[in-house]
Amino acid sequence: MKEVALDVIIAGGGIIGSSIAWRLSQAGLRAAILDAGRLGAEASWAAAGMLAPGGEFEGSSPIHQFALANLRAYPAFVEELQSESGCSIDFQRFGAIEIAGSEAEWQRLAARAEIQAELGISASSMSPEQVRREAPLVNPEIAGAFFYPEDAVVNPREITHALSRACRERGVEIYEGVRVRAIRPETDSVLVMTDAGQFAAGWAVIAAGAWSSMITVEGCELARVFPVRGHLVGYSLEAETVGPIIRRGHSYLLQRAGGFTIAGSSTEDCGFRRDLDRAIITDIENRAAQMLPMLAERTTDTAWLGFRPATEREQPVIGPAAHPLVWLAYGHYRNGILMTPLTAARVASGITASSEMDCFGRSESH
Ligand SMILES: Cc1cc2nc3c(=O)[nH]c(=O)nc-3n(C[C@H](O)[C@H](O)[C@H](O)COP(=O)(O)OP(=O)(O)OC[C@H]3O[C@@H](n4cnc5c(N)ncnc54)[C@H](O)[C@@H]3O)c2cc1C
Fold first, then answer.
1. pTM (predicted TM-score)
2. H or E segment and range at residue 169
3. Which atom number of ligand 1 is nearest to the Cα of residue 210?
4. 204-244: per-residue pLDDT in tens?
5. In the CATH scheme, what is the code of domain 6-83+156-224+312-365?
6. Which residues does residue 253 pair with via DSSP β-bridges, in sequence order?
7. What's the gap in Å between 312 CA and the centre of ligand 1?
8. Where does residue 187 fall: left (phi above 0), alpha (psi -120 to 50 degrees), or beta otherwise?
9. Is 3.40.710.10 the CATH classification of the domain at 92-151+226-311?
10. What is the pLDDT of residues 310-321, one digit of tens each?
């Protein structure tokens, strides 16, 4: 291996890039994060933080097992990150109630729950009376509901904050406001071209969310990733008033431990436009008030948006690119917060294993 000051450069410091850097630094590798903006300030800042395979998977897909494994890995991931960083992270496992507004919706949910049981996602039916007992604020005019006991919620902003602190404490170099333009793999190292000059390292990881495929890698064609914009709105409510996540299709409500309550969301194909759309916010507010009628009396305190990193196959790209010194970790679309623990583990262990092989090869030749 050529002598370079850094083992791994990570392009992008969202939840994915930062968690990879954290795991690499734990393994003793010298890592740097280059972020075009600020760490954790894009999709990972915008996300609601539902860890809810129950609301996402309606049939077998190559990633549903990965999603479920991530959900199982979450408690240990949060505990380890809290103890390393000294930051507290709001992580709550209170399940999700998916409501059916009509008999037809109820039938659809029941059929879905049967398929999901085969996938390993458990759910049990609830009568309207049971919903009233468990979540008294939910609109009583429902046909029934399903309860997903394993679904959970985390505050993604607290995760990225903790990751940033844990990375800094382990010596990860962090460069904000540095956009990676291109990566040139050489025989035994990579050159990373940025707005702020050139960096060299043993490996590069592309984890730039919805911007990842704008980075060019000499000799490799990257799977296209594109932004799917989503709005969310927030209400200041009293703590412990909402209970479990409340869902109806892609409309949802969840409450942070302090009471801040988030309603979502929208799915928009409009590139990287950053202006809030009043009509979309009103639509989310109406859907939220439909689920929780008391919200009709409340005004939202804040609204925001972010760009989900989507791929044509609606699956993340995780692993080495056509060149083995360039790794990819992007395209997590609606589930990047959920899929963080094992994406980081997979990329970090792959790179660590090749670095150990390299050391072994070198020591043999001496
Ligand atoms: C409204 C909304 C709600 C969501 N809700 C959930 C949810 O409830 N649960 C869930 O699991 N997921 C959710 N998601 C999805 C989740 O937010 C994403 O999948 C996840 O945050 C992706 O993380 P990332 O690190 O890949 O991308 P990002 O967080 O977008 O980070 C990418 C980083 O790369 C940087 N960057 C960009 N270009 C370059 C470059 N050329 N060089 C260097 N750096 C660069 C950016 O500045 C940014 O910091 C939601 C997303 C949105 C928008």
1. 0.97
2. helix 156-169
3. 30
4. 999 999 999 999 999 999 999 999 999 999 999 999 999 99
5. 3.50.50.60
6. 246, 263
7. 17
8. alpha
9. no
10. 999 989 999 999
